[in-house]
Amino acid sequence: PAQQAMAQAIAEALQVKEDLLVEAGTGTGKTLAYLIPAIQSGLKVIISTGTKNLQDQLLHHDVPLLRKALNVPVTIAVLKGRANYFCLHRFELARQEMQFDAKVIAVFNSLKTWSAKTRSGDIAEYSALPENDPFWSQVTSNVDNCLGQECKHYESCFLVNARREALAADIVIVNHYLLLADMALQESGFGELLPTADAYIIDEAHQLPDIASQYFGQAISTAQFVELANDATQFYHAEINENNELRTVCTAVTAACQQVRNMFGNELHRAAWASVKEDKKILTSLQELGNTVAILQQHLVSLAPRSRSLENCHERCELLRSRLQKVIEPAEAGYVHWLEVHRRSVSLHMTPLDVAGPFQEHKARKNGVWIFTSATLTVAKQFQYFTARLGLHSARCLRWDSPFDYQQQMLMFLPKTLPEPNTPAYLPALLHLAKQILRHSQGRAFLLFTSHRALKEAAMALRGELPYPLLVQGDAARDTLLERFRTTANSVLLGTSSFWEGVDVRGEALSCVIIDKLPFAPPDDPVLVARMDEMRQKGQNAFIEYQLPTAVITLTQGAGRLIRDFDDRGVLVICDPRLLTKPYGKTFLKSLPSARITHDMNDVATFFAVDTALAGVGV
User: What is the C-alpha to C-alpha distance for residues 94 and 96, in angstroms, rounded to an integer?
Assistant: First the structure.
């Protein structure tokens, strides 16, 4: 019934051109509920999903299923970011520079054969090389190094062809990153990347505000300068190659980037720009990088008329120099400057504290109906937090609970005996408790952590201590770990943020989810600190109006990993005692599924004993 009501509401919104927000609990069938009215509307519709995997599911399964069932001749196209498409120009350049190694030559020959056969050029089709392999950066383009209409392969470009198909299609499937990039960035050589549409349906919409903050700000990374230097060297060698002067300058740029990275030490972290802006060594290293890049720019000025590729490098060099200067200047009102130290690079950011204004401006230019849907848009069943973040104050808001019988399918265990989460005794006590629970569940569990540090400590403590296969985030790609979890009996998987949402494991393989802490953002996160300071200056309660709602939605997502189907049963364990001892704990509990709650380990043992008995009689 909820699925039918949701479909009817979306059909009405498309007809009367009214923005709509829909929260529908897990199991409602949101995908079909928005696809059916979209297909039947006759409108040009852009559907934005949270991940590329969901894009592929819509393209290859859901839309073809409905097109056949409804007997509607709707055309469909999927459009991804340019880094997902094989680039013929970059491939040619990479072949010229390839090492004479048998394995490398075999990869190039295999890619050449595949590129001649593939219709889409989507690198996800090429299974011989993982999508996260660093090699792909050599044979795909980005907004910086794409030559656009100047490229000799423009007419046969896979990205251009994908965009042509999107222009002609009735339904275009994109992801949030591409949607926001199109709203915020002017793609050189292509104009707007997405076609104009009559309606925009945003699935997994709870992710949109945070992604918008990335795209409506500015960012620069030393990795971009290194890539520029590498490209300039490669293009110069392939097209001009008269002396070594440019190579020397490019080498100096790379060295300057390494020097900047060295200034920030070995610890990977995020920090406010204010914490380092008085550090003379860091400022000097950044100035030296800027000076070296200025010298590179001077060389590229004279070379640009002789090579379209080097002209592109010159344009990139100008853009990156100005962006570097912008992110180290004093922050504009409404923005926060911060930095992140990565393993091999440093990135500097200027992030807007409020995205509602810019989002509404870009949304108005699209001039279509907007429909937002997710299982987690509300906090304690209220939409105010989400509508405020995107400025959606005039949208109609509807919600439906999950059709699952949580009273029968799920037990929520909230232990009362654990110490405070900020004490050294907490993690050892939590792991001791987890081992007891895992004995009752016989593995078959996710342990979800709020920090990588806790994950690593837990993995070290549990290795060799459990009689079950232990899978740990970081040991393999996420999809690989999930496949191992599904196919390896009684597995226990340890994960952080990437496993809190977008993960669907049905059946007995996942019968227990243990969450270590309430997922509040780190108190020293620079964007969080700046946003909360600004809210306090405006007289707002930053904790109640921002920090708490964000954590509630994240916890609800994590809890949602457990019950994925009508036959699923399991125990949700939230270890953080603040859920019971702090007044704000009630807000979390109001947002979680209405399952039975217990504080007694014996109830957990009984729940799993009943499950085992049912399995024994084949129920």
Answer: 5
